[in-house]
């Protein structure tokens, strides 16, 4: 009996935490189960750091995914104001003229030799529950002539929802000549449950449109609005959980 224990002591040694690990794979009598048991225990202790590395890598991937999600959400909230600044500074998508007074509008020279068909389009963001559409399919206008169009927005839900819209003009090179005197773009609009509103767009096409050689073959302009979900009343947030 003493010989058996002496053999075990010689062929095993302490690990860093006080457990035995096997120095050799000798098997003797009834000590075989003890030796193999210690061998499996040692194998598990070797694999532990590898499993720990895998867990750390998994945590890193998860953290990166969360960071990307937060960044995407931030960009989506910043997209509308950044697009507004871009349009105001470049004239892309048409411009809103706040410096147009009644006298200046009356003094615009109308060129009736170039009728332009203005078509109206509407789109709704993926998370927006509103119904949004133009009241007219198109209007025939002359450069220098003011025109009034309307879009209709409806909130068919049971909660107040705030939306905000962006716009663009097609073709792009006609955008600098498309001037909006009044519109609802880049402005937050809250609709109460089942509320419907008419949104006006007061605009004109600059008479210089006719003097631009690049506009010679352009007889149609598309005004397109897209309305996005902005926020809903926090008092009703529980209904979405």
Automatic annotation (TrEMBL):
<comment type="subunit">
    <text>Interacts with CNNM4/ACDP4. Interacts with RANBP2.</text>
</comment>
<keyword id="KW-0472">Membrane</keyword>
<protein>
    <recommendedName>
        <fullName>Cytochrome c oxidase assembly protein COX11, mitochondrial</fullName>
    </recommendedName>
</protein>
<dbReference type="GO" id="GO:0005507">
    <property type="term" value="F:copper ion binding"/>
</dbReference>
<keyword id="KW-0812">Transmembrane</keyword>
<keyword id="KW-1133">Transmembrane helix</keyword>
<comment type="function">
    <text>Exerts its effect at some terminal stage of cytochrome c oxidase synthesis, probably by being involved in the insertion of the copper B into subunit I.</text>
</comment>
<dbReference type="GO" id="GO:0005743">
    <property type="term" value="C:mitochondrial inner membrane"/>
</dbReference>
<dbReference type="Pfam" id="PF04442">
    <property type="entry name" value="CtaG_Cox11"/>
</dbReference>
<dbReference type="InterPro" id="IPR023471">
    <property type="entry name" value="CtaG/Cox11_dom_sf"/>
</dbReference>
<dbReference type="InterPro" id="IPR007533">
    <property type="entry name" value="Cyt_c_oxidase_assmbl_CtaG"/>
</dbReference>
<feature type="transmembrane region" description="Helical">
    <location>
        <begin position="64"/>
        <end position="86"/>
    </location>
</feature>
